[in-house]
């Protein structure tokens, strides 16, 4: 019998103990991030000279430019079709090359890799560097090495995509069930055999989802690579803006928006079909239960004298289900079609041996001229300008995105039709690439960080609104419903029932938006919208590759620092 002494059962009137300190580590981190966001916004406004009067004047100039662009002048149907096809082929070729390169890179970079340990640090460095430098920055380099055309664009897309695909695939490899791999190693299988036979089949659904998502991103990026001569529909947009043919530019922008929106819908449909939404990634507990179940099933099969291997079948799969059913035929046909499209996209890049061999002297000149990197005060000031533009635009965009998210989320919107209208508007705004906004604001307001800040503000607002709305709709509705049922007003129920749950997601998503804005601020500088991108394009045009190397290093360091800060903050807040 267990004794119920005062030490084990406290009386009802006992002292509740020390209260929780009002400033916990989570609260301090959130308050520090809020103060940093306000400071970055104020410093950005001071740096670019933004005020209510200048903002009103800038919006007036932009409205006049939009009136000059109306009505849009669409190019001929044949020209539009070819530009769209070239853009899609660039994205497909780049994504396919990145997927092929990312698979071995992810296996080597994973903590579960049992091969030579010295390979892991270089693999992780490649993943970080390729993810930190934007696609358009790589496009500038490859245009200088391989010349104008879609080959430079596809290679730029491929190199930048390796960082994201390999990073996410590395996480999937590390989370895969280690038991089959350990069993294969115990039987004497090599590391390559283990990866191909036991790990790759288990992470293939994750790989397919990552590649499809990256293809969606790359199509958006490929639509503007032509601005630096890397092929696609962006060439026509840059030509129209350069010749002040704003009606044609408006028509091309409309084509880009429609293309991106249609492909986003297609990507969502394909992901749902390929990845089968009913299948979820198993948790640790479910994986352990699955391993136990498989061992029990194998033992039962051996006890019964089963030699057909049916005990190894997945749960819920009968022996007569193995074979060429409709689902398997469709998957194989899809894989074959994907391979054919990828080969066609590679052929469209015109990778003839003469052109590739002629690029080696350019490549040697670029690499030889990059060392030692030439850092300077102008470079550091340009990096600081990009950082301020990104952080200020992300902070203001997060505030505006929160308002739009409250109007969009089903559990906070005051009127359902308004939610539908705002949601459609956000989809259209997100469909326009950031560089297109920058080109328009540069044409209306002139060169400088003011145009870049406005472009980042719009894109950050739309992106933050999407993330925040999704997070709001995933919150536990019980606290809000309980407060509403006892007569609390709408704002009271929100402040006490929704906001405390939403703060971690708000902070984490806001940091992610800032990370993306920093990468895009480099791209916008190439269009003359301030920041380090313009300096990078100028250094390549003047063959000052030592400055180019310094810019790439500075970009990678700053982006990695922001990404690390965001990861640490999310770890303590979420």
Question: Layout of helices and strands, plus pairs?
Answer:
Blueprint: H1 25-48, H2 52-68, H3 77-109, H4 120-132, H5 135-146, H6 150-175, H7 178-186, H8 191-222, H9 234-242, H10 246-275, H11 284-303, H12 326-348, H13 353-369, H14 377-408, H15 416-431, H16 434-445, H17 449-473, H18 478-485, H19 490-526, H20 532-541, H21 545-573
Helix pairs in contact: 1-14, 2-16, 3-4, 3-6, 3-8, 3-12, 4-6, 4-21, 5-6, 5-20, 6-8, 7-8, 8-10, 9-10, 14-17, 14-19, 14-21, 15-17, 16-17, 17-19, 18-19, 19-20, 19-21, 20-21
List keywords for this structure.
mainly alpha; disordered N terminus; 574 residues; single chain; globular
Description:
This protein is mainly α. The protein has 21 helices and no strands. It is globular, with a radius of gyration of 27 Å. The relative contact order is 0.11. The N terminus is likely disordered.
Short note summarizing the structure:
The chain has 21 helices and no strands. The chain has 574 residues and is mainly alpha-helical.
> What portion of residues is helical?
over 70%
Rg, Å, rounded: 27 Å
Name the assembly state. Answer: single chain
> In this structure, how is the largest beta sheet organized?
none
SSE string: HHHHHHHHHHHHHHHHHHHHH
